[in-house]
Amino acid sequence: MQNLDLETLELRDVNQTLQSQSKSVSQSEWAIINARGNHAIAVGLDAPIEVTVKGSTGYYCGGMNKQATINIHGSAGPGVAENMMSGKVVVEGDASQYAGATGRGGLLVIKGNASSRCGISMKGISIVVHGNIGHMSGFMAQSGTLVVCGDAGDALGDSIYEAQLFVRGSVESLGADCVAKEMRLEHLDHLRALLSAAGCNHKAEDFTRYGSARNLYHFDVDNSGVY
Amino acid sequence: MCGIVGLFLKDASLEPKLGELLSAMMITMSDRGPDSAGIALYGNKQPNLLKLTLQSPTPDQDFDGLDHLVSERTGSEVTMERRDTHGVLFVTSELLLEVRRALGDLRPSIRLMSTGESIEIYKEVGHPAGVVNRFQLEKMTGTHGIGHTRMATESIVNTLGAHPFSTGIDQCLVHNGSLSNHNSLRRRLIREGVHFETENDSEVAAAYLTHRMSSGATLTQALESGLKDLDGFYTFVIGTRDGFGVMRDPIACKPAVMAETDRYVAFGSEYRALVNLPGVDGARIWEPEPATPYFWVH
Questions:
Q1: Which of A61, A132, A158, B123 is a plausible cystine mate for B162, CB 3.0–4.6 Å?
Q2: Host H or E run for residue A13
């Protein structure tokens, strides 16, 4: 494993070193030390490498990730794994707001709690939160899966499209057009696979599935007076 | 975008280091607010005296001999300590109105930054590191303090538009966010007798809370009624003589991280601002909940 020390190296050099692994992988395991809440650590990676970030991170750690596995040994600031394409990001601590926002693929695992707007506008990413999530999570979520082993805050899945939400605990309130749905066998299988990939021991049967009622997809003339 | 830092000390042995710790936190937040910076420090109370923090655009002229002039005018001994463009005038509380009148007559260009037993405010336009340096904030001591780095969105970049805003005795507020109904709320408060110095939205929030508290509300009640009356985005950190409060709007998109140990409670717009605090690795770190008032008091 090769260490990259943010105390002595510039962030841009650290990221370029990791990004250059996309041409050919010279080293498969990397550690970034002295993260100290810095922004945009390990963004834009595109290689099957494993990066361990020691310490808590600031904005956008692991953003736009492709292929790489990024382990954050601490908590993550706003926008962790934002717009992830593939690969895996694991946060050992908590994550701040809009974790996994707009993510198109890959797996984001948050072992603590996630703050507000987790998975906002997600487009294919899988997110598994071991703890709770904050308000407005899954807002306008288009596709992908958000799994919450704890509780969800206010307005879960507001204006949701076709993403699937699974919550084990309570939901403070559901957002517009988000409803509880039947859990069928294919959903249980999908959920089991995600829980296993995220290192969760919970039973899939203990979760409730939420998704779009699809009432906002089309203009309803009965609502014309509302506007 | 703006940066906020705050530090409320539980352990008195850290009080000599308050200025040093808070200054370092504030400088870390420079890229969230490079146009102005300010700090409110609480402490160093003098028995039976109020502190008036003054600011002048021409301090050499305005502050020269000011303590003697005010002493002569009021017939009572008044002392002053100058720090760059600011100065602290120590007066007995019964002289407060007389001193304020005298300042207006003698030195009309002087602005009053704060009044209180405990509070002192230092704020100026410029990079936060420069502001820390010109006031030698690192050497200052106290029980708690709040710092702000400003990136202006709502009003002009000048000294009075920098934070913290003090609108009541020993009260101050810093704000990250923007209020959309500040003009109508300012007009409402003016009708109720409140005086404003700026066109700034954050001053309206500070004055609103002060006005509510002068009408009998506690800080918590004032913050709760603000959920209804203040329209916009905000993370507020508020200082009082003995305490330190935090409030985020219900959407809570303006960042906030807190750390608590046996020795202090600390606030940062980002975790970066907290990393150099003593023992922060063992601190409880969390984000304040939306629409929930937090308050710590000595």
A1: B123
A2: helix A11-19
**Residue A207 carries which DSSP code?**
-
The answer to whether the CB atoms of B252 and A78 lie below 8 A apart is no
For residue A220, pLDDT over 80 is answered with: yes
What pLDDT, on a 0 to 100 scale, did the predictor assign at position A227? 64
A192 to chain B nearest CA, in Å? Answer: 30
Domain that holds residue B51: 46-116
The pLDDT of residue A226 is above 80: no
Give B273-297 pLDDT, tens digit per residue.
Answer: 999 999 999 999 999 999 999 999 9
Closest by CA position to B137, among listed B77, B228, B53: B53
pTM: 0.95
Which CATH number goes with the domain that contains B176? 3.60.20.10
> What's the token pair of residue A133?
């999530």
* Shortest CA gap A96–chain B (Å): 8
Residue of A53, A57, A96 to mutate when probing chain B, most B C-beta within 10 A: A96
H-run or E-run covering A186: helix A185-197
Which of residues B59, B86, B116 is at a domain's end? B116
Indicate the helix (H) or strand (E) that contains A19.
Answer: helix A11-19
Q: What is the mean pLDDT of residues A98-108?
A: 98
Q: Are B120 and B136 in contact (CB under 8 A)?
A: no
